[in-house]
């Protein structure tokens, strides 16, 4: 894999005269896990869409680009807020959808291994309608990891999971995406405190960084003192921003 690039955004996004995001500046460091939180509607998903090249219908007055000055196209995997599973494909076919779209032979062995890691090995032949919400989200996570890209954009990837499964999937994602550039949108301060090497809060006033200095490597234990302290500070900041 080529070295993952850092990400840089500056500017404002509008649609039909409405402002969706900004003006704001933010960076996600190369090879690091950055968490992004903030009140609903401040433009977090819009920011991910800009980096994923999905903002054609929007007007970006500024730039959303890789810091190595090479195109982001082909280097990004997006796990969107809605799982986007195609209802007529099986779970395994959904995981390998990217390969199919690129007219590559799907690697079923790799897909099955990832499905086993997200706990869906026995459901690989089911259609999405026969999965629970949490199972669908895990299938979408497997599809994102299957893409094996240097940059991962994760939009509330664990929001439908129970506490124990969420912790397991956080551990899995931290392991699979180690060394990649990850920009992870979440509403959960405890999740950001576990996974964020950098933690950013987006409000109408701009971006603010919540320090994690001295925190251990990720994934951090959910009940470690440093994790709980960061969760508390972050929760307080989000309450102030509401
Ligand atoms: N295609 C669009 N056209 C017009 N407005 C849009 C469009 N998509 C999103 N918006 C608006 O842009 C703003 C930012 O939306 P976005 O989904 O990026 O916010 P968010 O911070 O991710 O919110 P949440 O935390 O609720 O997921 C919202 O006010 C939303 O209503």
TrEMBL record:
Transport among keywords: yes
The keyword Cell division is assigned to this record: no
Listed InterPro entries: AAA+_ATPase, ABC_transporter-like_ATP-bd, ABC_transporter-like_CS, ABC_transporter_ATP-bind, P-loop_NTPase
SUPFAM superfamilies (UniProt xref): P-loop containing nucleoside triphosphate hydrolases
Signal peptide per UniProt: none
Recorded GO MF terms: ATP binding; ATP hydrolysis activity
Domain ABC transporter: 2-229
Pfam families according to UniProt: ABC_tran
Superkingdom, natural source: Bacteria
Family of this protein: Belongs to the ABC transporter superfamily.
Protein name stated in the entry: ATP-binding cassette domain-containing protein
Organism of origin: Psychromarinibacter sediminicola
Organism classification: Bacteria, Pseudomonadati, Pseudomonadota, Alphaproteobacteria, Rhodobacterales
């Amino acid at each position: 894999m080529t070295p993952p690039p850092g990400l840089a955004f500056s500017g404002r996004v509008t649609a039909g005269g409405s402002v969706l995001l900004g003006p704001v500046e933010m960076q996600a460091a190369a090879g690091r896990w950055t968490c992004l939180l903030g009140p609903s509607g401040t433009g977090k998903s819009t920011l991910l869409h800009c980096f994923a090249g999905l903002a054609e219908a929007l007007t970006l007055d500024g730039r959303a680009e890789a810091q190595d000055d090479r195109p982001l196209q082909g280097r990004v995997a997006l796990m969107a807020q809605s799982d986007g599973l195609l209802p007529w494909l099986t779970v395994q076919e959904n995981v390998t959808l990217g390969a199919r779209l690129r007219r590559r032979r799907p690697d079923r062995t790799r897909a099955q291994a990832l499905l086993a890691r997200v706990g869906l090995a026995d459901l690989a032949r089911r259609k999405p309608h026969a999965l629970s919400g949490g199972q669908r989200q895990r299938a979408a996570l497997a599809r994102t990891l299957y893409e094996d890209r240097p940059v991962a954009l994760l939009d509330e990837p664990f929001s439908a999971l129970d506490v124990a499964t969420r912790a397991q999937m956080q551990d899995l994602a931290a392991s699979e995406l180690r060394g990649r550039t990850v920009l992870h949108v979440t509403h959960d301060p405890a999740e950001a405190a576990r996974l964020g090497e950098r933690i950013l809060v987006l409000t109408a006033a701009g971006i603010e960084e919540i320090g994690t200095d001295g925190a251990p490597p990720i994934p951090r234990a959910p009940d470690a003192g440093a994790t709980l302290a960061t969760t508390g500070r972050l929760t307080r900041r989000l309450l102030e921003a509401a």
